[in-house]
Each structure stands twice: as C-alpha cells, then as structure tokens.
Design goal:
2 helices, seven-stranded mixed β-sheet, mainly beta, single chain, 7% helix, 17 strands, 35% strand
C-alpha cells in the first residue's frame, strides 16, 4: 500500500512500507511538524504574483506557521496558496512595501496592507477555496472590557496639543499646568487663587504664576516691588494687591514700570490696620503695568 499525505504534506507511511528507510521519512516529517508549529519563513516577493506551495513529503514554504512577506514587489502582489484543497492557518506579516493579497480559490481573499499583520484561515475547499481574515473576529470590544463609553467618547482623549482646548475633546493642561481655551469660556462660578505674601529686607515679590489675588500685611517699609513671572507678551494678566498697614505707618514704593492715572502713584494709607486695594494690569509680559486704585482706607 502506498503512502498518503496530510494537508500539510506530512507523509503517512503505509503498514509494512519503507523497510530500512522509514527513519529518513520520519525525520523529514518531524521537521515539517516543527515548521508547522513554530516555523517563521521569510517569503521574498517580486513582480505582482507569487505561489506559496505545500509539497507532499518535503519541506516547503507553505508549511510555515508565520509568514513574513518581504522582497521588492513591483505593485500589489497576489499570493496564491497551493494546492487549493489544503487547509492552513497562517500568521502573516507584510513588510514588502506593497499590499499583499492572499488567495486560494474563487472564494474570498484577504488583503494585508504594507506594515500590517493578520491571522488568516485557508479553508482548502478546492476551486472555490476562500481565505478568511480571523483578525477581526479576535477584536475586543469596549463592552467586553467593562468600558461603558462609546468609541467616539474614548476618542475625546485623542488630543493634538496638551493644554490647548479642541472641539469635542477633553480639556487638558500642558507640561506647565497651563490651559489655553481657544474659544469662549463660560463658568457657573469663577474663583481666583489667593496668596498671602510678605516682604523681606524691604523687597516684596509678587509671583504672577502663583495667584491673581495677593495680600500683604506690612512689617517694614517696602522699597522694592518685584512683579515676577507674568505671562508672555500678547496675553493679558491682572492682579489685585491688598495692602494692610502696620501699627507703625509704613511706606510703599511702586516700580517705574507701573503707570497711574494722572501720572502720580497713590499714597498709601497710614492709619493702623488700614486696608488699601490696588489692581495692576499688563499685556506685554510685564514691561508695562497699569495701576488702578480699587479703594483706600478700608477700616
């Protein structure tokens, strides 16, 4: 009785056949099994067609489990899996620079774009054989992961630039923690950060990055007011400074960069515990400030 072959080309030795030589056949069979289970084959493509063949009783490219398509095809390359009555499962990865079309018969084909991979099943149905893409069947849905959001809602996080608002996208901060709203901003309630600051050796420093509303209770004469870290030119910034007078009347010197209505800086209230409130405004990165008296001598 003659040998028969599996769809993968493995030779099934008939009873009593190949006396003294069956070991050679068995070794080839084991090599084919290893290729079928773990083999990775580089399939070099050229032109626009290629035949991937499984040969009975011999090692062949069609027996590889993983197919890595390479070479230099001249365009979309159609790879015909032969014979058309052999069923296979392939893990295919296309690095050829062109699309690869896997076909076996007149049934459906699978196209793998350059750089993509797919798990494909060749049904071996003869002339009408079909190659099926199993990759799509293995895709995990959001609901399977317990995610109740839709794909569109998940894509709200597909942000072009951190810190810049985009229509229908999540609002984020940039690396500095800043947020730029590209259109109108509407809030039910608006709050500003308040910071208590104090002078040292006659210098009072207002860090514009830290707040918009500042308060200082004087314990000495302030001879230098430093307005640090204003936003870059082209962005407006305003701060409110509340100054509480000491029990001993202290003086307060405004820098030359602050302009006041009428050309003269206001005189600080001198009564013990008196509260003066001022607003400073800039649009050129702090080169020039405009000062406004909000009120003086609050008791």
């Amino acid at each position: 009785m003659a040998s028969t072959y599996t769809s993968s080309g493995i030779e099934l030795i008939a009873t009593g056949e190949q006396s003294g030589t069956w070991g050679d056949t068995t070794n080839v069979n084991l090599q084919m099994i290893d290729r079928i289970l773990n083999g990775v084959g580089t399939i070099t493509l050229s032109g626009t067609t290629h035949t991937l063949t499984t040969t009975d009783g011999a090692l062949s490219d069609g027996q590889y489990r993983v197919l890595v398509f390479g070479g230099s095809p001249s365009g979309t390359n159609t790879v015909t899996i032969a014979p058309n009555d052999a069923s296979h499962l392939y893990f295919a990865y296309n690095t050829s620079g062109q699309s690869v079309v896997l076909t076996q018969g007149t049934g459906g084909n699978v196209t793998i774009a350059n750089g993509d991979a797919a798990i494909v099943y060749c049904d071996g149905a003869g002339a009408g054989a079909e190659v099926k893409d199993l990759t799509t069947l293995l895709q995990i849905t959001l609901s399977q992961l317990g995610v109740t959001a839709t794909a569109a809602e998940v894509n709200y996080n597909d942000i072009t630039t951190l810190g810049t608002s985009e229509a229908s996208k999540t609002l984020t901060a940039d690396a500095n923690g800043d947020v730029y709203v590209s259109e109108e901003f509407k809030a039910k309630s608006y709050n500003e950060t308040y910071a208590a600051i104090s002078s040292s050796s006659g210098t009072l420093t207002v860090d514009c990055e830290s707040a918009n509303v500042f308060q200082t209770t004087l314990t000495e004469n302030v001879t230098t007011l430093t307005l640090s870290n204003p936003p870059a030119s082209g962005t407006s910034y305003a701060l409110t400074l509340k100054i509480v007078q000491d029990t001993t009347a202290r003086t307060f010197a405004w820098p030359a960069s602050v302009s006041w209505a009428g050309g003269s800086a206001p005189t600080l209230s001198t009564a013990s515990g008196a509260v003066d409130i001022y607003t400073l405004y800039t649009t050129d990165g702090g080169t020039n400030w405009y000062g406004f008296v909000g009120g003086q001598e609050f008791a």
